[in-house]
Amino acid sequence: MSILNRLASLQNRRDEVPNQELARDLATKKDKAGIREVVENLWNKDKNIQADCIKVLYEVGYIEPDLIAGYTEDFIKLLKSKNNRLAWGAMIALAAAAKIDPDTIFRNLNTIKKAKETGSVITVDNAISVFAHTASANPKYNATIFPDLLHHLAFCRPKEVPQHAERTFPAVNAGNKNEFIKVLEKRTEDLSGGGLSRVKKLIRAAEVI
After folding, report:
1. Per-domain boundaries in the chain
2. What is the pLDDT of residue 53?
3. Global confidence as pTM
């Protein structure tokens, strides 16, 4: 029986629970054949099936990123999709895959940057994670990517600063922490309440790296 029968849309369900349950099963069983079938159906003619499949894959990525990292190039292709659900879903998947396959991400950096510039809020949020995990992989990647992350933090909307700073944090190291702290200290002028507390916590964490 095809694994697709477990997708939400094929069960006439409007919620995401069937997709989440399928993802959990695939991840727990490390079912590579099942995951491959889901990936192949990212290009199904039925848009509902496409949407379910990207949901399943990024949910697998949350649990076991190595199980989807082999499909990094497929997710990068989806960033250009006119279907916004697929584009931002692909960026969430890439945020997981970047932890395992930063090399493929780095080779396709310009495509991912372009998707961030034109994408939805979810696309932008997860692009920050994609860049940060890739930058954390080695000094060469960090030298290329980290200045862009700092520039983004310096000029993004105040309400985005706490989350985007947290997403950037994996790329912070002993060599660049002072620049990170400097940008965040400047942004604290725009913040208050919980957002300010989150940023101050990050500054303290960076100081001891």
Report:
1. 1-122, 138-209
2. 97
3. 0.94
- pLDDT confidence tier of residue 3, bands split at 50, 70 and 90: confident
Q: Per-residue pLDDT for 1 more than 90?
A: no
What 3 state SS string does the chain have?
A: CCHHHHCCHHHCCCCCHHHHHHHHHHHHHCCHHHHHHHHHHHHCCCHHHHHHHHHHHHHHHHHCHHHCHHHHHHHHHHCCCCCHHHHHHHHHHHHHHCCCCHHHHHHCHHHHHHHHHHCCHHHHHHHHHHHHHHHCCCHHHHHHHHHHHHHHHHHCCHHHHHHHHHHHHHHCCCCCHHHHHHHHHHHHHHCCHHHHHHHHHHHHHHHCC
Tally of CB atoms within 10 A around 64 = 17
Angle at CA of residue 8, ends 87 and 90, nearest 5°: 15
Q: What is the pLDDT, as a whole number, of residue 152?
A: 97
Q: What is the pLDDT of residue 91?
A: 98
Distance from C-alpha of 169 to C-alpha of 132, rounded to nearest angstrom: 7
Using CA atoms, how far apart are residues 117 and 10, in angstroms rounded to an integer?
Answer: 34
pLDDT tens-place string over residues 120-137: 999 999 999 999 999 999
